[in-house]
Structure formats: structure tokens, C-alpha cells
Write a structure and sequence with these properties.
Oligomer: single chain
Helix content: 25-40%
Number of domains: 2
Mean pLDDT: 88
CATH architecture of the largest domain: 3-Layer(aba) Sandwich
Distance between the termini: 59 Å
Order of helices and strands: HHEEEHEEEHEHEHEEEHEHEHEHEE
Largest sheet: 7 strands, mixed
CATH class of the largest domain: Alpha Beta
Number of strands: 16
Shape: elongated
Radius of gyration: 22 Å
Strand content: 25-35%
């Protein structure tokens, strides 16, 4: 009985969408996604979104789930959009990038809302971007006048290529970003691991991709096996210090579970104090373990996320070099 009621309700919502769109196919697509048809219309070109001033081609219907987040970013942050082969081009006013998945849109939202906003010395800052993904955060950092360089690491080849494409769309910022197709770990080695093109921001070297797919009941049809190469965190950091000896170094770490071994490695090698600020996303094990290590290395930390959550942000400031830091 409940199933029948639910089905009737769905069909009524389809009819409601049809009265706006005058197209049964798009009416079912929009209803299935739980979207409001207001502001949408169907033309010969495809589905038009009036507020964004774009039309999604009929052969690019996979872009439709991005509409609501795009509208939110336009309304709250002034981001402009246009359709291009392979995705939607987002223009933030400071940088541009191509977005092809809902996760990519969510990452852009997090970055623009300030998840990686920080204050250090007004000039000569280097950002060590561990887990640069498609380059959203790297471009955000490079657009800041106090950032001299961004040294980015992304182990998955498909995502790395997407990042390079996004960097190329920003010729004024690209020279400041040094991308590397490697991951960061406690030691250097190579491995085979799963990769899902629709969930590339969750791609992990620690098995998180499998658990994510199980939790969200994903089909796995987009999963491939990728070979990745990893470099030892201590050697990479010392290389950055050698290349930029007089710069404050900010570490942004988003590597789906590898953050624990990276922080452990740098602490054991007595290198954490080479960093001025650490901004990381923790996964599953909570922030306490990381906070204890950072406190021992002379950092003060802040985490707004509950320790029993699946993921959360942790921020740490090196109190031993506070004199070199100023508010943003």
C-alpha cells in the first residue's frame, strides 16, 4: 500500500513538472532528481536554466544534477557558469575550472566558502597541496597575492590530467603552481588501487573508496584499477624547504585517510616545525591522534567537527613561528 502511494505521489510530481516543461522525458528526469522545475524550460538545444543563462545539451543530461549547486554558488558567491565539452566551466572571478561531477561542484563550494582560508606572512608563502585533486584548492591558493608558489601532489592519473587542464585555463596563475603526479606517504613505493571517475575526490589509498561505494550503494561501473606512485613525506618537505628557504610553508592535506601516516612521518623525522600552518581533513579515526602529535610539535589546533564523525577539518598553527604570522 505504501509503495503504491509513493508511486502515485511520484507520478503527480512528474505531472507537475510536465506542466512547466511540456516534455515528459525531462519531467521524469527532474522529478527523479528531486528538483524544482521552476526556472527551467525545454528548447531544441536541451534543458535551459534561465538563472544561469545556459542550456544543457540533450546529449549531456548527466550535467543536470549539477544545476542546483550551480544556482547556489551563483546566488551566494557570484560564480558564473557556461557549458563546455566535458562539463560546466565555473568562473569565480579569480580563477576558472571545468566541473564534471557533483563532487567537483561540492569541492568548489567548500573552497570558496573558506575551508582553506588562512593568514600568514603577507608575502612569500608556499602551499604544499597534498591531494590536489582537480586543482580547485591549488587555484584558490595561487590567486592569493601572498602565495608565492603552490606545490601540488595528486597520485591518480585521470584526476591529475583534469588538474593540468584546469591550470591551463588560468595562464596568469599556472606559473605559480607546480603539479606532481605522485601521492604522499610515510615512504616511497608504488601500488595498484581502485579509482571511480564519478567520485574522484574520494579516491583513496587506504580502502576508503570501497567502503564509500558500499555505504552509498554505488554500482561500481565507473571503477578502474590505477597504478599510483607515492613519495616519502619527509623527503618531499625537505625538497620544498630547499627550493623556498625563506618562505612560510602551509600544508593543505586532503588524502582520504593517509593524513595519519603523513603526520606521524613528519613528526618522527622532526620536520613538523618546518610548517607554519596545517589544514587537513581527517577520516574515520578522528582528530585526537593528530592533535596530540601536533601539540607535541608546538602547534595549537582547532577542530569544529565531532570526534565520532566520519570526517572533519583540523587546523593547526605553529606557535614557534607566530612572530612571522599576521591576520588575513
Amino acid at each position: 500500500m505504501l509503495t503504491l502511494i509513493g508511486r502515485l505521489y511520484f507520478e503527480l510530481q512528474v505531472l507537475r513538472s510536465f506542466l512547466v516543461l511540456h516534455d515528459w522525458h525531462y519531467a521524469r528526469v527532474i522529478t527523479g532528481l528531486g528538483m524544482n522545475p521552476s526556472g527551467l524550460s525545454v528548447t531544441e538545444d536541451g534543458l535551459r536554466v534561465d538563472a544561469l543563462d545556459v542550456s544543457i545539451p540533450r546529449d549531456s543530461a548527466w550535467l543536470i544534477p549539477l544545476i542546483e549547486l550551480a544556482l547556489l554558488l551563483q546566488r551566494t558567491l557570484g560564480v558564473r557558469f557556461c557549458i563546455s565539452p566535458g562539463g560546466i566551466i565555473a568562473d569565480t572571478g579569480r580563477f576558472k575550472l571545468r566541473i564534471a561531477t557533483r563532487q567537483g561542484m561540492e569541492v568548489l563550494r567548500e573552497v570558496l566558502e573558506g575551508v582553506y582560508n588562512f593568514g600568514v606572512a603577507p608575502t612569500d608563502t608556499v602551499v604544499w597541496d597534498i591531494g590536489m585533486n582537480a586543482g580547485t584548492a591549488s587555484l584558490y591558493f595561487a590567486a592569493r597575492s601572498n602565495v608565492r608558489a603552490v606545490v601540488g601532489f595528486e597520485p591518480f592519473r585521470p584526476t591529475f590530467e583534469a588538474a593540468k587542464s584546469n591550470l591551463a585555463m588560468n595562464p596568469e596563475l599556472e606559473p605559480k603552481i607546480k603539479p606532481h603526479n605522485f601521492g604522499i606517504a610515510a615512504r616511497s613505493y608504488g601500488m595498484e588501487t581502485e579509482f571511480d571517475s564519478l567520485w574522484n575526490a574520494s579516491a583513496s589509498l587506504c580502502g576508503s573508496m570501497t567502503s564509500l561505494r558500499d555505504r552509498l550503494r554505488l554500482s561500481g561501473t565507473n571503477v578502474t584499477i590505477e597504478h599510483v606512485e607515492l613519495l616519502a613525506a619527509d623527503r618531499v618537505l625537505m625538497s620544498i624547504v630547499a627550493d623556498y628557504p625563506h618562505c612560510a610553508i602551509v600544508a593543505k592535506i586532503d588524502c582520504e585517510g593517509s593524513e595519519y601516516e603523513i603526520i606521524h612521518c613528519l613528526h618522527e623525522k622532526r620536520l613538523l616545525r618546518k610548517l607554519s600552518i596545517v589544514m587537513l581533513e581527517w577520516h574515520k579515526r578522528g582528530p585526537e591522534e593528530l592533535q596530540a602529535i601536533l601539540h607535541d610539535a608546538g602547534f595549537c589546533t582547532y577542530s569544529a567537527s565531532p570526534s565520532n564523525g566520519v570526517t572533519g577539518m583540523l587546523y593547526a598553527v605553529n606557535t614557534t613561528c607566530r612572530a612571522n604570522q599576521t591576520p588575513s
